[in-house]
TrEMBL record:
InterPro entries hit by this protein: Cys-tRNA-ligase, Cys-tRNA/MSH_ligase, CysS_C, Rossmann-like_a/b/a_fold, tRNA-synt_1_cat_dom, tRNAsynth_Ia_anticodon-bd
GO MF annotations, alphabetized: ATP binding; cysteine-tRNA ligase activity; zinc ion binding
Top-level taxonomic group: Bacteria
Cofactor info, note text: Binds 1 zinc ion per subunit.
Ranges annotated as spanning the membrane: none
CDD domains: CysRS_core
Cofactor: Zn(2+)
Motif ('HIGH' region): 36-46
Reactions performed catalytically: tRNA(Cys) + L-cysteine + ATP = L-cysteinyl-tRNA(Cys) + AMP + diphosphate
Name by which UniProt lists this protein: Cysteine--tRNA ligase
Pfam families reported in the protein's UniProt record: CysS_C, tRNA-synt_1e
Residues annotated to bind ATP: K283
Length: 472
């Protein structure tokens, strides 16, 4: 049976409205999302666009067919932050080698991190350094059309040459002038003009070009890579909302002026920001959490969390709202996912099994994951009562959403205690044996809050022991 596919509706930052989504070509729906600059481990804020746009990618594949969606997420592997990191970490190596060490290691870590979050691989993950020629072609076109000029060792974009510069962010050039705190660079015609190409010193990384040996500015990288893989105008462009200005505004300026088009992408989507335990994440506050730390160490709540749990904790808030990521929220997500996995336990999935239509319909409304999760709860309750094919439907829907079916449970042998529960039970037994009943009760109550119920008994040797089960 084929069910009718839903009409997607997406919020567009460019028009500031939610509207029905109509791809330019339903046989090839095209999406570009700005990827990481690979100089340091990705933090859990960076995980948000990765997860949000993975969900959208899955939804698009469901609606238009898996072979009819092209998703590009780039890797920015040329940037002055990378050069600085290379000098710091590998002072004894030639700079080029040191840079390669930094970018390769960071890229590998990023790919491992996002895989653990249950994300599909984008169709293409181009590296900036492999698209330098494409960037130079774009810059030449901009110079030719007088949208760019060469001054002070840089090629700069001439913002005044674009009548409607600033549409995405709602800023105009006068705002920029008024807000400009930095001293105006003497060689710029206008303070809002931005770098397309800059000359490199002998020790800096550089590529030969008609304007001398140099390196690209950040914005031109995305204009070049999106054109190469998606064409001059495509459907969806995404990223975190900090990228609206200047990055996306300038991508639009470059691409539209170089190609003489009315749009670079038709729909611009931006995820809200993430903070941790009520505070903006920053290195100086000491609350900077990398994805790797969250998954591997006890950085949040003294214990590690699995990627599935971070994924759900992230999606529980609408993608455009800010998120306050807390230990409590992670624990809630974990309990919820465990309930779902438990209700779906034993379902046997085949390759083409489709997700539940009501869940998909909720997501089709600008990725309303909250309402989708309410629909999922409803199916889980039916699955717990063994109604119809609810168990199977739940499993297929969880898989569609990118969740594992057994990461929090053991599939054949009842419930295996995840390490944090096993440790808590052992600590409580120690407390009981030491007659520290207050501590034992605290641990029991903490577990109860996570839906874990304990039962004490005496084993064959007469020793105190504890069984546990998950409360329905
Ligand atoms: P960056 O490496 O800083 O360019 O960021 C990569 C992606 O992560 C961009 O889409 C940013 O908008 C996004 N991002 C960075 N910090 C956060 C945060 N705290 N919350 C949500 N998204 C973020
Ligand atoms: Zn970009």
């Amino acid at each position: 049976m084929t069910t009718a596919k839903p009409q997607l509706s997406l919020y567009n930052t460019l028009t500031r409205t939610k509207a029905p989504f109509a791809p330019m070509d339903a046989d090839n729906v095209r999406m570009y999302v700005c990827g990481p600059t690979v100089y340091d481990f990705a933090h859990i804020g960076n995980a948000r666009p990765v997860i949000v746009f993975d969900l959208l990618f899955r939804l698009l594949r469901h609606v238009y067919g898996a072979d009819h969606v092209t998703y590009v997420r780039n890797i920015t592997d040329v940037d002055d932050k990378i050069n600085a990191r290379a000098l710091r970490d590998f002072p004894d190596l030639p700079l080029n080698e040191a840079i390669r060490k930094v970018t390769e290691k960071t890229e590998d870590q990023f790919l491992a991190d996002v895989k653990a979050l249950g994300t599909l691989q984008p169709t293409h993950q181009p590296r900036a350094t492999e698209n330098i020629t494409e960037m130079q072609t774009l810059i030449s076109a901009l110079l030719e059309k007088n949208h760019a000029y060469n001054a002070g060792g840089e090629v700069l974009f001439r913002t005044r040459s674009m009548d409607d510069y600033g549409q995405l962010s709602g800023r105009n050039l006068e705002d920029n002038l008024a807000g400009a705190r930095v001293a105006v660079d003497e060689h710029k015609e206008d303070p809002a003009d931005f770098v397309l190409w800059k000359l490199s010193s002998e020790t800096e990384p550089g590529w030969d070009s008609p304007w001398g040996r140099g390196r690209p500015g950040w914005h031109i990288e995305c204009s070049a890579m999106s054109e190469r893989y998606l064409g001059q105008t495509f459907d969806i462009h995404g990223g975190g909302l900090d990228l609206i200005f200047p990055h996306h505004e300038n991508e639009i300026a470059q691409s539209r002026c170089a190609h003489g088009t009315h749009a670079m992408a038709n729909v611009w989507m931006h995820n809200g920001f993430l903070q941790v335990e009520g505070q903006k994440m920053s290195k100086s506050l000491g609350n900077f959490v990398t994805i790797n730390e969250l998954l591997e160490t006890g950085t949040m709540g003294g214990r590690a969390w699995i990627g599935d749990v971070l994924r759900l904790a992230m999606l529980m808030t609408h993608y455009r709202e800010p998120i306050d990521l807390t230990v409590k929220r992670l624990a809630e997500a974990e309990a919820k996912l465990r309930d779902w996995q438990r209700a779906a336990r034993g379902a046997e999935l085949a390759e083409g099994d489709e997700p539940d239509a009501s869940v998909v319909n909720e997501l089709a409304d600008d990725l309303n994951f909250h309402r989708a999760s309410v629909a999922l709860d409803f199916i889980a309750r039916k699955a717990n009562r063994d109604e119809g094919n609810a168990k199977h439907c739940l499993a297929a829907t969880l898989r569609f959403l990118g969740f594992s079916l057994d990461s929090l449970i053991d599939s054949d042998d009842g419930w295996e205690a995840p390490p944090h529960i096993a440790n808590a039970i052992a600590a409580r037994l120690d407390a009981l044996n030491a007659k520290d009943f207050a501590k034992a009760d605290t641990i029991r109550n903490e577990l109860a809050e996570q839906g874990i119920v304990l039962m004490d008994y005496k084993d064959e040797a007469g020793q105190r022991a504890t069984k546990w089960e998950v409360k329905r």
